[in-house]
Amino acid sequence: MTSNPFKNSQSKIGAGTVLQSAMGCLVFGVLGLAGCDHKAPAAPPPAPVPVSVVTVKAEDVAITSEWVGTLDGFVNAQIQPQVSGYLVRQNYREGSSVSKGAVLFQIDPRPFQAALDQALGQVGQAKGQLGQAQAQLGLAKINVNRDTPLAEQRAIAQSQLDNDKQTAMQAEASVKAAEAAIASAQANVETARLNLGFTQVRSLISGIAGQATTQVGNLVSPQSVLTSVSQMDPIKVYFSLSDSEYLALINRARKGKGDLLKDASSIPLSLKLANGETFPQKGHIAFIDRQMNQQTGAIRIAATFPNPGNVLRPGQFGRVSADTEVRHNVLLVPQVGVQDLQGVKQVFVAGDDNKVHVLNVTLGSESGESWIVTGGLPSGSRVIIDNAQKLQEGVPVAPHAAAITPQTSSPAGR
Q: For the chain, what are the domain ranges?
């Protein structure tokens, strides 16, 4: 049988390929064993995390209480007419400042002018009657003086003298009646003059006049409210204290630690406006309501604040605050430095080794933007206030002093 040379060539090529593959595996195995004997270089240590720290220390802290307040005018006057009539003119611009005594509205004065003229005529008529009565009285007195000696001499009858005296008495009564009529007519004149003056509706206080509630041409009466005027410098701020807060302040005052509730108290009040800004003027307690509100269990307090330029307006809301207590030798930690882990309050502290240490702390009340720490934090600790997401126990840090301090509220004894 004839052999196939092409088939023999393929067999040789296949055998060579297998040999080459075996040699490659052997080489790779040797290199792999050599690679296993060489160790990889160690990773460099992590760079310290830059953090801001606040060093806490014991100090005296003023505890600030805060209440929601409602602003109102120091005096609010409703402007009402004292006579009835038609409005013929409005003399002020709504929302403008008005002075005490300024004429705000004019009521048609013509009927009241006519009443005054009539009253003046009645005075003249009464004075004329008084003149007649005085003339009759004078004549009666002359007759009495003339007939008295004649009656004594029996030159005339006694009855004639008696008639003269009776006439004199009647004339004297007429004089008194005329004088009373004059007084009554003069009183009518004063009333008519007052009513005429009341046609000019004036402001009884200085302040800001509100929107007119009645238009020109309307018929008004003493029951009509035309507008309102509010005195706004100073301005009142009303807020409420709970029963417990009120009693605590009273007890504090009895111990000689400051009486916030005293009129014109030396303890100032601050007012934070709706935009978060603190009003630059300080206020004081004006008065305390006479009783607790039985529905809310709170007592109403009124404070006054200077209001130059009438910046504050009635109806605004704000937050009234005051230092109500001073606590001694307490630690403050910024609120931004406190972490809440499932209800457990923690702080990150930079230790002397510049590594992070996690401490569980107990917090008291707020003081400004800080918490009062009642336990778990030694004095002198450097509390970390930023980069909390990068921190855990033992992480190296590069601490530097923060730009803020824990005492963000007013110092004690202000």
A: 51-61+328-401, 65-74+233-326, 82-107+201-225, 109-198
Fold exhibited by the domain 51-61+328-401: 2.40.420
108-126 pLDDT per residue, tens: 999 999 999 999 998 898 8
pLDDT tens-digit profile of 186-214?
999 999 999 999 999 999 999 999 999 99
Beta carbons of 397 and 363 less than 8 angstroms apart: no
- CATH classification number, 65-74+233-326, choose in 3.40.630.30, 2.40.30.170, 3.20.20.100, 1.10.10.350: 2.40.30.170
